[in-house]
Structures are given as structure tokens and as C-alpha cells.
Design goal:
This protein has about 250 residues and is α/β, with parallel strands linked by helices. The protein is built from eleven helices and five strands. It has helices spanning about 15-30, 40-50, 70, 90-100, 110-155, 155-160, 165-190, 195-205, 205-225, 225-230, 230-245; strands at about 10-15, 35, 55-60, 80-85, 105. The chain has a five-stranded parallel β-sheet, with helices on both faces. The longest helix has about 45 residues, at about 110-155.
């Protein structure tokens, strides 16, 4: 299966070959792309060289003393989702796992449906987080562009009246259109998540608060510049943004 066609790319790290190969077959039948390694050293090398959406890692395997693999995930895979599995559950490892940013702690033999449920919710949340991050950056850049345009107009009204700013304004509005498309996807995916811990994390995520604030800042800029540009499109855009934030109060 081509990675671009898969539901997500997964690395399985387990020193029991029959386990990791059979699990890979089951997940690939569900539409996921899987790679398998037999120890934490090989897993670290793969994670350093390539990007994955999720890591399924055994606790007791060579190179993973004190969960070293999870404690030192390569920066290339920042935000990587992790599911820990073990055939030897202990209170110390369970407590240690709770202190790490992991998605689930599962005991072998695995309940495949349970694993699949964690995996689906985790990858859905990862997509929301990725959309949130890129949309936040785009909106912040758009707000900065609008403030620059406003400052330029105030410094040189004649240039604006002669249409000098038309091209810059068109480009800025084009960037915003792409951002709004991402926002629409974000809110739809967020609303479609099951009522679970993943949903709670999305709603309480500090990046979501940043994104909402960027929308509010954009509304403020549009309101402040309405007398400068006298644009129906900008007025409609402001009203559309305000409908996204009906419950927000300044």
C-alpha cells in the first residue's frame, strides 16, 4: 500500500516477531501502512530517518530500559502518538507510563477492537491538531498583513486611493480563503469526534484558544479598517467570521 493512500503510518516496535508481524497484517487490512522493528535501537533509527503518525511499542525489549525510547523520541516525530503494549504489566511501569504523553497502555494478548478504537481516535485528534497549528500560523500572518496594509494606508492615503494596494489586498484575501477552508475542516472533524478523552483534549487544547483569538483579532482589524477600504467583500468576510464566534465575548 502506498503511504499516501493509507489512513496513517504506524511503526511497530516489539522483539516478538510473530506479534509485530501479525499485528502489522491486521492493521494493513484496515488501511494503515506499517513498518516493524525488533528493538528500541532500530525504532529510534527509523524515527530519526522517517515520519510516522503513531508508534506501537513494547515495554520490555532491548534498548527500552526505563522506557528510554519513549523518553527520547526524535524531534523529527514531535507530537508522535504512542501506544504502549506489554505482556508483563506491573504497577511501576503503569505509573511510569501515566507520566508520559502516551495514547494508551495495553496488555497482551491485545483486544484488537480496543486497539483499533484508540488508534482511530488518536489519529483523528492528530489531524485536528495539525490543522489547528497550520491555521493558527496562517491567521496570525494574515492579521499581521492586514495591520501592515492599514498602516500603509494611514501613512499614504493617496497611494491607496490610486489602487496601489489592490494587489496586496487581493493576495491577503486569497491567503485568508485558504485559512478559512482549513478552519471549516477543523470544526467539522472536531464536531465528528466521539465523546471521548480525545474530544476533551481538542476542546481544552491551548492551541484552539490561540486560533479563536486569531479569529477575534481578524474581526477587530476588519472592523477598524472598514472606513478605509469601503469593501463589501471585507464587510461580508467580517460578518462570516463573526458567525464562527457567536459565543465569544470581548
Amino acid at each position: 500500500m502506498n503511504d499516501s493512500e493509507s489512513l496513517g503510518r504506524i511503526l511497530i516496535a516489539d522483539d516478538e516477531e510473530s506479534f509485530h508481524r501479525s499485528l502489522a497484517v491486521l492493521l494493513e487490512r484496515q488501511g494503515y501502512a506499517c513498518d516493524c522493528v525488533a528493538d528500541a535501537f532500530a525504532a529510534a533509527q527509523r524515527l530519526e530517518a522517517e515520519s510516522y503518525d503513531l508508534l506501537i511499542s513494547d515495554i520490555r525489549m532491548p534498548g527500552n530500559q526505563n522506557l528510554d525510547l519513549i523518553n527520547h523520541l526524535p524531534a523529527r516525530n514531535e507530537g508522535l502518538l504512542v501506544i504502549l503494549v506489554t505482556g508483563y504489566p506491573t504497577v511501576p511501569t503503569a505509573v511510569q507510563a501515566l507520566r508520559l504523553p502516551i495514547l494508551a497502555y495495553l496488555v497482551k494478548p491485545l483486544d484488537f477492537d480496543e486497539l483499533l478504537g484508540h488508534l482511530k481516535r488518536g489519529l483523528a485528534f492528530r489531524k485536528v491538531a495539525a490543522t489547528m497549528g497550520s491555521s493558527t500560523r496562517l491567521l496570525e500572518r494574515w492579521v499581521a498583513d492586514m495591520k501592515t496594509l492599514r498602516a500603509t494606508f494611514q501613512a499614504s492615503p493617496q497611494a491607496a486611493l490610486q489602487g496601489t494596494l489592490d494587489g496586496a489586498l487581493a493576495l491577503t484575501l486569497g491567503n485568508l480563503a485558504g485559512t478559512m477552508a482549513e478552519l471549516q475542516v477543523l470544526f467539522k472533524v472536531s464536531a465528528g469526534l466521539e465523546r471521548s478523552r480525545a474530544e476533551c483534549e481538542v476542546r481544552s487544547c491551548p492551541r484552539l484558544a490561540t486560533l479563536e483569538q486569531a479569529v477575534l483579532d481578524t474581526i477587530d482589524v476588519l472592523e477598524a479598517t472598514k472606513d478605509s477600504f469601503h469593501s463589501r467583500k471585507l464587510r461580508d468576510l467580517r460578518q462570516n467570521l463573526e458567525t464562527l464566534m457567536p459565543d465569544s465575548r470581548r
